[in-house]
Amino acid sequence: MMRAALFLLLWPAVLQAGPRFQDVSADLPVAHVYDGGWEHFVGGGVAVFDCNGDALPEFLAAGGENPARLFVNRGGMAFVLGNGIPQLDGVTGAYPLDIDSDGLLDLAVLRVGPNLLLKGMGDCRFEDRTTEWGFDPGDRWSTAFSATWEPGQDWPTLAVGNYVDRSDPAGPFEACDANTLHRPDGTGYATPILLEPGFCALSILFSDRMLTGRADLRVSNDRHYYVRGGSEQMWRMEPLALMGPEEGWQPISIWGMGIASRDLNGDRLPEVVLTSMGDQLMLIAQPDGSYRGAPYDIGTYAQRPHVGDDGRPATGWHAEFADVDNDGRDDLFIAKGNVDQMPTNAMRDPNNLLMQGPDGRFTEASVEAGVATVERARGASLADFDGDGRLDLVVVNRRAPLELYRNVTSDTGNWLALEPRQAGPNGFAVGAFLEVETPGGVTHLREITVGGGHVGGQAGPQHFGLGPDTAAKVRVRWPDGGVSDWVGVEANRRLSLWRDGAGLDLR
């Protein structure tokens, strides 16, 4: 045990090379741009998911005033345009999930205008089932989404975050729209519940943040338009109510644009990063349900551009935790970019790739990695597009072409890609917790969620870097509270973990 612990301590020093990415954007079939006027200053999300069952993820990129496009993965980082999806205009973003629990991933598509629910038909074909499923699409400016399966329900509860009320003649300032909660009613959806007051949401996330078996809804809001009287919000689902200080909720006011959640310190409570203008806010979860700001020297605040001479505040959008070099520590990517021509903020605002060190602090590596571009980035995703065990990167830009990067980092650690599955409703086990324990005694806890980010997310295997470890133990805490036995697995494998009583059927 001592020798293994010593090796784990020394192993990071062996990795002399930092992360490296190869820009393969020129190989895409089209230069895709998220564009449009004021209503598309925000948005620009990307949904990542496997829609044809070949274990290689596709992605749907929002287009704003341009059509949204589905890029179908042909392997080796080669993509073609998918033609099995309806024409999608005015799209701000999308999220994949299996709404009807048929084993095929569907899409919740957010728009400036009526939203859509698209049913996955297999082979990357989709049909509009918005009306058939009884979903009220609204006619709002939708910019955030999350979903959860509430106890006893066969269909997911869907939450939609909305931005400025375009119909308010006194707007746009102090004219934030209400958010909507869509609860299932049999095989469809009941009349939506208004979540009021709304404060111009740009990211929302259902999360069982206290491991109570109950998901709360975090709402990150943009103070630019609510101006005063607003804050970040947390909704309790049962009974439905906004949380307050008596429940440990501490309202803060930021230009909230994106949410990333991950347990970073091993206490089984997920930390949160909230993107904003200026400071990108890291909050450390506390046992009583409250949060405290991370110390400044943690290295994630990223409040100004890290290259160039523009000292104005940065603007963060999508944030995502992921282990880019498979060293067993989650890193953090933040998409950056000016709203449009906002003079108070940096115009040339590079993305951040913040690598976590053994001491829990983060160090900027985007320049050496080759991803520090200064376009107006919005949505992004880290996913293994070529199936080699290293996470690649896609970035959607406003008024500039989408970027696709292949992870070519050398001497990476070992890894696992794990996807909990179960028969019946909620087959992709949204709300489950994955635990991975390494021989060195490190335990990773990962919640399966739908939502967060900036108007986009992904569905599929959860990626775990293992560092030097060649095996691990895994178990699943299922959404209904059942816990599987520990099962040993070898590293460098992609596995579906099917629920089998107290066991796991590895496929």
TrEMBL record:
InterPro entries per UniProt? Crtac1, FG-GAP, Integrin_alpha_N, UnbV_ASPIC
Q: Does the keyword Cell membrane apply?
A: no
Instruction: Cite the SUPFAM superfamilies for this sequence.
Output: Integrin alpha N-terminal domain (SSF69318)
The UniProt keyword set, sorted, is: Signal
Q: Where is the signal peptide?
A: 1-17
Q: Where is the ASPIC/UnbV domain?
A: 429-495
Please verify whether the record's keywords include Signal: yes
Instruction: Tell me what this protein is called.
Output: CRTAC1 family protein
